[in-house]
Amino acid sequence: MPSPDTDTPRGPIVPIGGAEAKTGTRDVLARVIELAGGRDAHIAIIPTASELPDTGDRYARLFTELGARKTDVLSITSREHARVPAALEVVERATGIFMTGGNQLRLSTILGGTPLAQSIRRRNAAGVVVAGTSAGAAVMPEHMIASGRTGPTPTTEKVTLAPGLGLSNRLVIDQHFRQRDRLGRLLTAVSFNPFMTGVGIDEDTALVLEADNTFEVIGSGTVTVVDPSELSYSSMDSAREGEPVSLIGLRIHVLAAGCTYDTESRTASAPARVPFLDEDEDPVPDDA
């Protein structure tokens, strides 16, 4: 949908499941550069979630290797830093904004409600791509998974939610999904508010959410979609602490690269099939 003050469509939102490939073709990060303008890309990197001093610089090198024209690392480690005019100017000039992994509560507590957070939302509404990996993906929606327990079964205390940046109110996002066995906490998060679609993103995998609220899956893993639109029963309101929660009528999709999902119609689509041909096999003639 267009942003409120312009006919320019909202920019893509690219949550990444973490541990994205940093050698080889680096498909996920390369897509971020492409969406940010390719050789003209100017990436503002926000390593706030990480406590490692070199995280921002490592991503700056990666984006430069992938062809970005310019990168700026914003060392935002306090709420005061998130009000510095020079940092805001970088975000206003950037063609892409990237948030690194780490602890999503550092992102939400340091950036939440600051001019920098407002600038990120405004730039995305004006057409600029916003991407984030791991914690940087979790913080994107209005409702953020702040923490939770592993395991496949939803329970009353499986997840803690907190306010996120509000780039989307349609999704709740979990990351490192299959690798860290997080189905139960995503199911729990969705059961708290069945309006939202739950998406669990594997490592080295991302989704590209466009302005029309459809997304495409990219990368080497899968995105698990939890659709609660036909939920007919939930025991969340009556389950005792620690008890399993019953959820009847959920739909779950597992989507690999090339698959798409429409968050408005709640429909998933697969890419066209490419016929498989063994290297030693001759094509079958048309008149066979």
State the CATH architecture: 3-Layer(aba) Sandwich
User: Based on helices, strands and strand pairing, what is the structural class?
Assistant: alpha/beta
CATH class: Alpha Beta
Total discrete domains: 1
CATH superfamily: Class I glutamine amidotransferase (GATase) domain
Q: Let me know the largest β-sheet.
A: 9 strands, mixed
Going across the biggest sheet, name each strand in turn: 3-2-4-5-1-10-11-16-17
Mean pLDDT score, rounded? 94
Q: State the end-to-end distance.
A: 50 Å
Helix/strand order, N-terminal first = EHEHEHEHHEHEEEHEEEEEEEEE
Q: What is the number of beta strands?
A: 17
Provide a short characterization of the protein structure.
By secondary structure, this protein is an alpha/beta fold. It contains 7 helices and 17 strands.
Helix and strand topology:
Elements: E1 13-16, H1 27-35, E2 42-46, H2 55-65, E3 70-73, H3 85-93, E4 96-99, H4 104-111, H5 115-125, E5 129-133, H6 135-138, E6 143-148, E7 159-163, E8 171-175, H7 183-192, E9 197-201, E10 205-209, E11 214-219, E12 222-227, E13 233-234, E14 247-248, E15 251-256, E16 260-262, E17 267-269
Parallel strand pairs: 1-5, 2-3, 2-4, 4-5, 8-9
Antiparallel strand pairs: 1-10, 6-7, 9-12, 10-11, 11-16, 12-15, 13-14, 16-17
